[in-house]
Design goal:
- This protein is an alpha+beta fold.
- It has 2 domains: about 230 residues, Rossmann fold (3-Layer(aba) Sandwich); about 120 residues, Nucleic acid-binding proteins (OB fold (Dihydrolipoamide Acetyltransferase, E2P)), CATH 2.40.50.140.
- The chain contains 10 helices and 19 strands.
- Helix 9 runs antiparallel to helix 10.
- The longest helix is centred in the middle third of the chain and has 18 residues.
Length: about 375
């Protein structure tokens, strides 16, 4: 940006689209977002329950969970659009209690960009800039449009753009404010899968290139894995697991998190035994299940389970386990085969797309031991 002519000096709040906000006085240091013991109630229901989260400068955190889990309420509380009943939200070491939305230095982007129809693309992007008609502002608009893949779109009207193009303009508008924190509330959910996957990749690239600190709310774990460095999984208002995305993916905290993240094979000990006979050192895994039971810090354990992703159970002619194919469905990841394995029951497996498998045919299975997970079954759970 050109010194002093373009920057975060203009403050505006738009509850129907982006929230583009100005600088916050008296803030120093670079400690990022710090949420401690956050609670938000709607009547007798706690929508957000004792949430602790941190986000370092330049990091990208995805808050993931099913509809109604409280993730959007948490994001709105961070933005200043919902009041906390208790707890604190701080940024760079400054408590934001009492700081209005337009003074927090954040920008917010919703699932529909809701661009201003009365002006063109350039006018939309320039909205968060000081002196939006200046040459410096127009140069910045062109730079941002090129960054989001829309070079030359300055004079286009929002109504002439596709859904994906509109979201790119909304993202450019949010980035124009150079926010201290970018809050993204399901920004890609209204798009078709192909466009969503493409924009998720582009969003990750843009956040890294610009060094933007961002918090993404989504129910789509593929989107979260693509965009974020870290992930927090919410259930009934609480964060039930938080950590690097790879760690959360490979080591879910419990059965509920595993199933939410797409682990199809969740087997109690008696069903896991037969599967583990075909796995190197399977006896050690059973010993681990025995040790896990009763040791989980949240309590309420109802047994230890073995989790295995479909992608870790391979259909192969010389597999050490033998079962019978129950169903076949072609997916993007290969031929999805459900197999009846004696002693275990139905197991979700994956075959090569060209594999010659028929329903009722005996097939061999090989289990990748690196894909095994030990999962406590935590059922006694409530946010109230």
């Amino acid at each position: 940006m050109n010194g002093g002519n373009v920057g975060r000096n203009r403050s505006a709040e738009n509850h129907n689209g982006d929230i583009v906000v100005g600088t916050m006085d008296g803030v120093s240091g670079q400690r990022g977002l710090d949420v401690r013991g956050a609670n938000v109630r709607f009547g007798s229901k706690r929508a957000v329950a004792d949430v602790d989260l941190t986000l370092a400068p330049g990091g990208v955190l995805a808050v993931l969970g099913p509809s109604g889990c409280g993730k959007s309420t948490l994001l709105r509380a961070i933005a200043g659009l919902e009041e906390l009943d208790s707890g604190t939200i701080a940024f760079d070491g400054v408590d934001l209690a009492g700081v209005p939305t337009h003074r927090r230095g954040f920008a917010m982007m919703f699932q529909e960009g809701q661009l201003f129809g009365h002006t063109d693309v350039a006018g939309n992007v320039a909205y968060g800039l000081s002196r939006p008609r200046s040459a410096a502002a127009q140069a910045e608009v062109s730079r941002l449009l090129e960054l989001v893949g829309l070079a030359g779109y300055e004079r286009r009207r929002p109504a002439t753009l596709s859904g994906g193009e509109q979201q790119r303009v909304a993202l450019a508008r949010s980035l124009a404010a150079t926010p201290r924190l970018l809050l993204l509330d399901e920004p890609l959910s209204a798009l078709d899968r192909t466009m969503r996957e493409r924009l998720a990749t582009d969003l990750r690239r843009l956040l890294v290139e610009t060094g933007t600190t961002a918090l993404l709310v989504t129910h789509d774990h593929d989107e979260a894995f693509t965009v974020a460095d870290r992930m927090a999984v919410m259930r009934a208002g609480r964060v039930v697991q938080e950590g690097p995305t790879v760690q959360v993916w490979s080591h879910p905290a419990d059965v509920w998190v595993a199933r939410f993240l797409g682990v199809e094979n969740v087997l109690p000990r008696e069903r896991a035994q037969a599967l583990l006979r075909g796995v190197d050192h399977g006896d050690r895994v059973l010993d681990g299940m025995d040790r896990l039971e009763g040791t989980h810090p949240r309590g309420g354990i109802h047994g230890a389970n073995l989790g295995v992703r479909r992608s870790s159970v391979k259909v192969t002619p010389d597999g050490p386990l033998r079962g019978r194919a129950l169903s076949l469905v072609m997916g993007r990841d290969g031929l999805r085969v459900d197999v009846d394995l004696p002693g275990t029951g139905r197991v979700a497996a994956l075959a090569d797309p060209t594999a010659r498998v028929r329903v009722g045919q005996e097939v061999g299975l090989w289990v990748d031991p690196s894909g095994l997970m030990l999962l406590p079954d935590v059922r006694d759970f409530t946010a109230a």
